[in-house]
Amino acid sequence: MIPSCVLVHQKWRRMPLPSGMGGNAPRRQADRPTGDTIQLTCILNLWYTACMKQTLLVKLTPTPEQRAALVRTLETFNAACNDMAATAFAEQCANKVDLQKLVYYDIRERFGLSSQMTIRAIAKVVEAYKRDRTIQPHFRPHGAMVYDERICRFTGPGRISLLTLDGRADIPFRFGAYAAGRLERMRGQADLLYCKRSATFFLSVTVDAPEPTPEEPADYLGIDLGIIALAATSDGEFLNYSTGPKHAHVNQVRARYSRFRAKLQKKGTKSAKRLLKKRSGRERRFVKDVNHCLSKAMVSTAKGTSRGIALEDLKHIRERIRAKQTVTGKRQRRVLHSWAFAQLRAFIAYKAQLAGVRVVLVDPRNTSRTCSHCGHCEKANRKSQAKFLCVVCGFSAHADLNAAVNIGRRAAVIPPDVAPRAG
Predict the structure, then answer these.
(1) Across residues 41-61, what is the average pLDDT?
(2) pTM
(3) Of the candidates 115, 139, 116, 113, which has an alpha carbon nearest to the alpha carbon of residue 126?
């Protein structure tokens, strides 16, 4: 899913303190919190709020001459990065200032990069080398190039000026209504991305996203995430069935792509490999689109009913569950390890934060075995994957719907100040 503008990720930054409240003074060990100190601490916590940052992809529409200049600049930039990476690895240098002293003038002379391009290339090399100092980083010819405010500037509505090896290029770009009100809040750097397959340039722009303070909800919308039914809510809805978004048959689509890949890999010809390369990423984009639709529906429901969202904490679930070592087990392992529950939870978390909806995580233990009517917990209550029948009170329901109700109730009893935060 690559529209002209799409949300990629989000991160956080600290807001500055109000004037007169500098928080840099060291605190003495003998100090003890008093009533005034506690009140001041509360004020400081309010000012050190989390401000979400979003990354938007805007599609550039350069002329053929501008495209050629951008491609040449990108290739030269990454060639310079590879040259500096060899020097950094040989000298065991992971400091930007020290590496700049070693390579700055030589790189400018041999590759023809501008001063700021060279600085950005040094920063890119150092960040890559710091991740693992035992290997030399290598950069692809068309890897991302970092632009900052010195070499990138918005010149008007729908136009941006980028520095290339041939000078400044004033390039038009396309964006939708979603990005129209956000590009004015651009902050920091932008990355130039190139898709060689479609010969398309994108600019990854970081913008500040206003985040309302979430109100304390009186109730929670419980959501049970699963493999067969992707999401069931405590309102009795299956969001991936006929009432949910289109293309909800995720497992069937994954199985079809798996058979398709296996067939081409078995063939092994050059044309089969070309087709594999051509079709790569389709399954991932399809699942990402479904997760975006599901998360949007969940947050919209919670926002419209003034409720929070309760999710299961499914961390390490793949380590706790083992599929059988059989032919059927092979299919089960494929389904289990392609389950994108973490991506769906991340989408729910950031959409909820933008909407001012509180999200909490609860312990998933026995949520599918506990009766939401009488509270009796027993393994025999879960008759099958879909059927729940309490052996004490006789209450019957879909197992996922019953679990969603239990999840919502568990979140309602978690104290707000110790509730775990999703994301």
Answers:
(1) 59
(2) 0.71
(3) 139
State which amino acid sits at residue 83.
D
What does the pLDDT look like over 352-389, one tens digit per residue?
988 889 999 998 888 988 998 888 998 999 888 889 99
Give the chain's mean pLDDT. Answer: 80
What is the rounded end-to-end Cα distance, in angstroms, of the chain?
A: 22
Instruction: Look at residues 279, 386, 254 and name the one whose alpha carbon lies nearest to residue 333.
Output: 254
Query: Which CATH number applies to 220-418?
Result: 3.30.420
Rounded to whole angstroms, how far apart are CA atoms 103 and 88? 9
DSSP state of 238: B
- Token readout for 338 is 């392609």
Residues 168 and 152: their CA atoms lie apart, in Å, by 9
Phi, psi of 246 (to 5 degrees): -75, 165
pLDDT, tens digit, for every residue of 201-250?
998 888 777 777 777 888 899 999 888 888 889 988 887 644 444 445 78
Q: State pLDDT tens for residues 181-213.
A: 666 666 668 899 998 888 899 988 887 777 777
The residues near 208 (Cβ < 8 Å, ≥ 6 apart) are 51, 52, 53, 54, 185, 187
Residue 273, pLDDT score: 92
Domain boundaries in the chain? 1-13+46-211, 220-418
CB-based contacts of 262, cutoff 8 Å, min separation 6: none
Long-range CB contact pairs, 12-16, < 8 A, 24+: 12/50, 12/51, 12/52, 12/53, 13/50, 13/51, 13/53, 14/48, 14/50, 14/51, 15/47, 15/48, 15/49, 15/51, 16/47
Check if the beta carbon of residue 10 is closer than 8 Å to that of residue 49: no
Helix axes 96-111, 64-91, angle to 10 degrees: 130
Neighbour count for residue 402 (Cβ, 10 Å): 28
CA distance 413 to 344: 24
pLDDT higher than threshold 70 for residue 19: no
Q: Do β-strands 220-225 and 308-312 pair in parallel, antiparallel, or remain unpaired?
A: parallel
| Nearest in space to 58 (alpha carbons), one of 7, 93, 21, 103 | 7
Question: How far does Cα 38 stand from its chain's mean position?
Answer: 36
330 vs 248 pLDDT, higher one: 330
> Which pLDDT score, from 0 to 100, does residue 71 have?
95
